[in-house]
Amino acid sequence: LGIPAEPLFRSLIAVFLLLTGTLTAQELLIGNHDVVRQSEYPKDAFLIEADAQSFFRISGFNSTSTDHPLLGPAAVPDFESIYFVKYDNEGTPLKSNFIRGTYYPVYAGSDGGGITIMANANQEVDANDGKPIAIPMNSNVEFIGNYDSDCQLERLINIWGLIDNQYVYSEAIMDPEDGSIYVYGDASMPLELADGGVIGTGQSNVYFYLIKYNHNLDRQWVYQFGFDMAQSGTSPYFRKIQVFPGHEGGVLITGVYGTE
Q1: Is 72 helix (H, G, I), strand (E, B) or coil?
Q2: How do residues 21-72 score in pLDDT, each as one tens digit?
Q3: Rounded to an integer, what distance in angstroms lies between the CA atom of residue 56 and that of residue 149?
Q4: Number of helices (H) and strands (E), helices first, in the chain?
Q5: If we measure between CA atoms, which residue out of 96, 98, 63 comes closest to residue 80?
Q6: 123 near 103, Cβ under 8 Å?
Q7: Is the dihedral of CA 223, 216, 72, 49 positive or negative?
Q8: SS3 21
Q9: CB under 8 Å to 33, separation ≥6 — which residues?
Q10: Is the pLDDT of residue 105 over 90?
Q11: In sequence order, what E strands does 62-170 have?
């Protein structure tokens, strides 16, 4: 690609457009390319379709710098960041943004040309909105961020009101019909929600939870279930839980529940 050799790792994205040349043959045309140079091994990257004309690339920095024209502020040594870049359908970078606190997104999806990110952080979460989310001692934070089609922050929420020495590790998925977000997982102790209420009270030793937020990140409802420990044996566990948004706000939950 004609890029000068430099003593830096490279995270390279190149978009290839496959166009039909004739009725009997196809021609492969190479689109633009974009290079994110960094002084550490690149983190995993994900591509998310925004609409027919654009897509997002989302990845992270652990402790590095970069000369990318859109990502300079996102890469600061000693600070972890999730970053994302929006490209047009030929691979030209358009806009970008970042969130400090972690370098790995648990889930990201797009609705209406914007992007929604759910992640788990062990450092203070800062989305450049002047409202950082602090981390309790020996704990973590799970958050969801909504960004518009220009990569500008619309809203960032903390899911939990955790206290010291509490951890939670949730998954998330977006409903493609309306952009709502489902956050789900299992826990072994009651957990307080940041916007009010406590889940897990009166449940078994291990319980499953499912929290629905609308496109604006307003909580809609919480569903939870456990099992009768007198009938379930000891050391209960959930495995391979999957959530599938359905038609008109419905949802299918599958998984394995077992005991020893």
Answers
A1: helix
A2: 444 456 666 668 888 888 888 888 999 999 999 999 999 999 888 888 998 8
A3: 10
A4: 1, 18
A5: 63
A6: no
A7: positive
A8: coil
A9: 1, 12, 13, 14, 15, 91
A10: yes
A11: 81-88, 93-100, 105-109, 115-121, 141-147, 153-158
DSSP 8-state code for residue 4: P
In angstroms, rounded to a whole number, what is the distance separating the alpha carbons of residues 18 and 164?
52
pLDDT at site 231: 63
**What is the rounded distance in angstroms from the CA atom of residue 47 to the CA atom of residue 58?**
7
Which residue do the tokens 């502020």 mark?
A: 73
Please give the model's pTM, rounded to 2 decimal places.
Answer: 0.86
The candidate with the shortest Cα–Cα distance to 260, out of 239, 228, 242, 237, is 237
**Where is average pLDDT lowest: 120-124, 170-174, 190-194, 228-232?**
228-232
Averaged pLDDT score across all residues of the chain: 86
Higher local confidence (pLDDT), 182 or 17: 182
Burial 187-221 (b: 16+ CB within 10 A, else e): beeebebbeeeebbeebbebbbbbbbbebebebee
**Size of the chain in residues:** 260
> Cα-flanking dihedrals φ and ψ of residue 195, to 5°?
-100, 15
CB 254 within 8 Å of CB 239:
no
The tokens for 159 are: 């899911």
3-state secondary structure of 256: strand
Backbone CA torsion sign across 134, 136, 138, 141? negative
Beta-bridge partners for 223: 210
Which residues touch 65 (CB under 8 Å, ≥6 apart)? 38, 39, 72, 75, 76, 77
